Amino acid sequence: MSKPIPEFDIDIFSHESVRNANAVDDRLREFSPVVRLPGENVTMIARFEHVSSGLRDWKTFSSTSRPWHDPNSVRPELLLTDDPPKHTGVRSVVANALSPQAMSQMAEAFRADADALIGRLKAQGDGVQVDAVADISQAFVYKVLPDLLGLPEAGREHLSAFGNMVWATMGPMNTLFHETMAATGQPVIDWATDACKRDNLLPGSLGMAMYEAADRGEITTDEAYLLVGILLSAAADTTVITLANAVRAFSEFPDQLELVRNEPKLVRAAFEESLRWDSPSRMAGRIAMRDVEIDGYVIPAGERCGLMFAAANRDPRKWTDPERFDVRRPNTGHLGFGFGVHACVGRALAMLEADALLGAFTRHVTRVTPAGAVEPWMTTIGHGPAKLPVHLQF
Ligand code: HEM
pLDDT tens digit string along 128-150? Predict the structure, then answer.
């Protein structure tokens, strides 16, 4: 006999909740191990133990029909919306192209871009005020990612609006969704549609590698096209926000910046800890394929569920002093990159970007201090700063 699943009386996707997403998600996690969102007809789990075991068990928590699933949305329906065995073949194409070995060839170019960017900020002098999103993390990722994918220069200014649109399609069709869609406009959709076509990609690029896999018969040409769009959307804002959050963490925990400056090999640990401390992905959706019992509550077969990465990464049952950004914390197993068959396939690329950007940042910046209010990214499933004003000392 299942205990009745408690209903949460807060709309976790309202404007106000999105502005306070961490507090809202923490409250949901502590409310009950299994929580129903009556307005959404979705069941959430947010405790580390349950989220990680759910992500591991793809047969029970299938990806083939996620909450708010709309087959007509602009979001590409491939890979994230498949289970094995279909998922396995497509994923291996992407995994080969994004292997640490393939990515290591990019290290020098990334370092040059990061050094040039931080150098330009340094040239503006001590105490310069910048937006750590627009002027640091976005300036870097929005340059190296389309370069790597082989996208044309023209139209790259649409990347941010494209990201907003794709993230919006992962959540409910509420007011925020409609506001995002209204702000996007046809030119953004036209750009994204054209940019991922074979004729517009540079030879030797990551984007072209998808079409070459199609030439070898590993995937279809239609799938290659979708994969370029998936890479463009999955790799952009996640990395922008994790890098920006690392800068925010250095401003709130100056001792941790000092630690990394003294021991540069801690740069990757700082990036991973940024991801645990404040994860850019609030949750991922799945559908329950059978009745699932969690702590005496039974989620019925067919129920759409949200597995809350960010709340699990701050679960005090798992993490000591979770609000503390601690680059020496043993944070292996955090869920910021997901877990199980869909765990992030772009991890090696994200790490390489972190090496370059946070490496240059921590080499040159001695102190970073807040310079105004942080503006949140107004989206339902993603989470993080949209504007992060800081002063930099060199
Ligand atoms: C810090 C940066 C990043 C974060 C936080 C992140 C986060 C995630 C998460 C949480 C998932 C799992 C989603 C789920 O289970 O439903 C995922 C999957 C994925 N990520 Fe990332 N990601 C990052 C960077 C990247 C990059 C740089 C790329 C590509 C170059 C990428 C491509 C993908 C793809 C294609 C998937 C789907 C994998 C699959 O379904 O098997 N990500 N990512």
Answer: 999 999 999 999 999 999 999 99
Q: Ligand 1 centroid vs 34 CA: distance in angstroms?
A: 25
Q: Is residue 162 part of a domain?
A: yes
Q: Is 358 in the pocket of ligand 1 (CB under 6 A)?
A: no
Give residue 344 CA to ligand 1 midpoint distance, Å: 4
Residue 184 has pLDDT above 90, yes or no: no
CA distance 212 to 391: 45
Domain span at residue 114? 89-279+318-393
Q: At what angle do helices 86-97 and 221-252 cross, to 10 degrees?
A: 60
Contact, 238 vs 231, CB < 8 A? no
Taking the C-alpha atoms of residue 56 and residue 79, their distance in angstroms, rounded to an integer, is 16
Residue 259 Cα to ligand 1 middle (Å): 28
44-102 per-position pLDDT tens digit: 999 999 999 999 999 999 999 888 877 777 777 899 999 999 999 999 999 999 998 88
Residue pair 116/122 in contact by the 8 Å Cβ criterion = no
CB-ligand 1 contact for 231 (6 Å cutoff):
yes
Residue 62 lies in a domain: no
Q: Is 327 in the pocket of ligand 1 (CB under 6 A)?
A: no
350 Cα–ligand 1 center, Å: 9
- Residue 289 falls inside a structural domain: no
Angle at 153 between CA 148 and CA 154, to 5 degrees: 145
pLDDT tens per residue across span 273-311: 999 999 999 999 999 999 999 999 999 999 999 999 999
Residues 6+ apart with CB under 8 A from 139: 117
Write the CATH number for 250: 1.10.630.10
